Prior knowledge:
Elements: H1 2-15, E1 25-26, E2 52-54, H2 80-92, E3 108-112, E4 125-130, H3 133-137, E5 139-144, E6 150-153, E7 159-160, H4 161-166, E8 168-174, E9 188-197, E10 200-211, E11 215-216, E12 223-229, H5 238-257, E13 265-267, E14 279-286, E15 293-300, H6 307-316, E16 321-325, E17 339-342, E18 345-347, E19 350-352, E20 356-361, H7 369-376, E21 382-385, E22 398-402, E23 409-415, H8 416-430, E24 448-450, H9 454-458, H10 463-485, E25 492-496, E26 499-501, E27 508-512, E28 521-525, H11 555-558, H12 595-604, E29 608-610, E30 619-620, E31 625-629, E32 635-636, E33 639-640, H13 641-651, E34 656-660, E35 677-681
Parallel strand pairs: 2-10, 12-13, 15-16, 20-21, 23-25, 31-34
Antiparallel strand pairs: 1-3, 3-8, 4-7, 4-9, 5-6, 5-8, 9-10, 11-14, 12-35, 14-15, 17-20, 18-19, 22-23, 24-27, 26-29, 27-28, 30-31, 32-33
Amino acid sequence: MRSSLKAAVLCLAASKASEALMVTILADTNRDGVVNDKDLNGRDRWTPDLGAFFMANIGDTEQRCSSQLTYPVRRPGDNDASYLAKEAEFARCNDASDDVQRNVKYLAPLRVLPVPERDLPKDATATIRVTDEKAASLTRIFVKSSSGDWSYVNGTREFTAEQLKTGLELGVDARDVRRPGPNGWNGHASIEFALYSNGEKKASDTVALRVAPILTHHHVQKVQKTFVTNEPSSPGWGNQGVSQGIFAESFSQIAAGAGIKEPTYRFSDTTEQWTQDFFEAGYTSIPGPDGPNVLRVLIRSAQAGRKGGQEVFRRLRSDSVGAVQHLGWGGSRDSLGNLETIPPHSHNGVSYPAGRAMMGDADFDSPLMLEFLDAQEVQAPVRLDTSWLDVGHVDEFLQFLPADNERGWVLMVNDPLAGLDIIKAAAQQDGSQPAVSRPFFPHDPQNCHYNETLADLLDFANLTEIQQSAEANIQRNLDILRREIGLRDEDIRRVPGLTTNLITGGFTCWTDVGDSVSDGVQRLQAFPGDGEDAERSCPMGSSPPRSVRNGMMSIKQAGMPRNRKNSLLSLSGDDDVEPICCRSDGTDEHPECHPDVQERSVDEGRESAALYPTGVNSVVLTDSTILAAKQWGPIINGVDVLEEAVRDAYAKVGFNVMFQDDWFTHHLLGGEVHCGSNVWREANVKWWRK
């Protein structure tokens, strides 16, 4: 590189011999991973196709910051703003939060070319600065000494004539990422190098850079690490905690058996089992000489007070892993099971080499995280309509898979009508067979007996209409994807799965009470409806959400805002749980009591949820293996007909399905295996290339 730079100096000197003095600052403007004479053209103006990137150096080397964090507590008198200020402290400390360079790996290179001695005044000095005040406050510049140390350069530091003769080796990083809104930063920074003599500016040069975006993983990228929540250590959980511990151990073994070398990380300081929802694994990267220079960045959900998200900052940061948060009081649609990534594609002349983000939206509950994703620009998010879903997450009905085809991927989509056809066919063979084949296990939180037969299931209120409504809503979202990404019919595969809604409810759990069955039987709805049989801890005339059993929250409850009146969750932990009771006069401010939500429940009904575990709400472990929830469907001729249907659907695209029981830990609480786990994936994509 030194020979290239020397050649650049000679070339520039020859072409501008008439100029008495000239300085040149270079960055990796052409994005090939090195700084040389090929970066001369266009360096002073950043465009989507030309211009250098630099990185937010927001890891936590030796966990200097993480070790000092404590859980914030909302004190009497704290308002929303004062509490958010406490949570902001989680991200305030990182490797770039002061002026010490702790991790030179993530410096983007800058070079100031040597100034020929014959042109250099003896009293010459030089400065380097970021020209914009906002960008200057968020950008750090360092200079490398002859001994190899890096020292911080502020806007007033002067370089001597002796230093200018040999040139300068510099590096630049950022204190933060791209942020939305009028007070945010778009990541642009222009760096000016100026030479002075006799108190006057004699020459200057500018190079334009931009902070690299925070990107999310898609399923074509290979899994490198998995995450799950361990058995809660706090007392009082009983068999519910035991069940979660068994789930975590089983998941860890399956991941290892699939060939994932890094051991599964198990969260142990949160009692929340919805590991998919409180963070999204992402990354940021810039071109390097040997390929992309990558920093993993974990994105906390925009749900202040959610303890699992706090754990991301306390436990997972390192010299190669950072974390970001876009603080707010987001609801269920800000849970990050509602964030998926469409794999790379091109559409309408625009290329998306890193894919596009995708979130479920609703007029009455639009995710705050969309603002943050929009600000990154590169993965322009697609907004789907999940207003018809009880939980409201896109992972409830679709999933992208790697595939050996022109696109490199296919879209797996839930098929409620096919699920209904399977149940009808099974009932024709033997309608007296149990609809649910799950046996009782000693670690089950409840001693449940499911007595409904296939014939009983087909008598569920409005069962056919529920499937038809779900299918219509799915088709509406597929139309959005057809418009947004050019989705074709041949890109779509269907996976059978039956749905229900809040009024019809689910299977009935009959549980023994007392010392024997003869002492009585208590009827509990595993997925309670809103009719007279629903369990109530609110006064009549108000409508409860799904019940909390033995301290475990439903996925929807876990995602509710913590700042609202009658919130299910306290701000000091996960264990303080109380019911929401919506006032009949419509004056309650809780989001679950919003008139639009209540109107949907009364007039439409009926937000959809899975009756049996959903096949597509599964984990893509490898390019040929997924992990799905055990179906526990009806057994006909010794075969679980739903499990067989899920296997067959994935086999058609070259995937083997492994099954794991999540009936009590996740399914009955609104989610599946995907909701209860997380992954990070390889991140070597050159996303800057069109």
